[in-house]
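Deliverable D5.2: sample structural annotation.
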Amino acid sequence: MKYCAHCGKEMNEDANYCLSCGNTVEQEIIASSSNNYRAKKSRNYQLETILGILAIIFSLLNYIGVIIVHLFGIALGIIIISMVNKDKKMNEEYSPGGYAMGIIGLILGGVALLIGLFSTTAL
């Protein structure tokens, strides 16, 4: 069954225009069943994945002795979460891998920050 993208009413498969609202079929019809809706992929999909990987890398570098880089991991994690929240509001498909890696980078960076704070206060 076809549905009009403008008003949502059912249409015949061979219809050239919607009988309900009058819009033409060429660009106004969604040819799908009610459960086959797929969100448009976000333009930031790949960027979210790349930033997620970088968030983890920067957060982990602190554990091998590189100073201050965990703050970049925390910042990237926050940026990814805000990008994903924007994608969700726009009903766009976000990168679940990037989202998870952003959260992991944020957590690892936060733990590194806490370790650094407690180790400097213990001296």
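Annotation notes: The chain has four helices and five strands. The chain has two domains: 1-37, 40-122.
The annotation will be released with the project's public dataset once the embargo ends.
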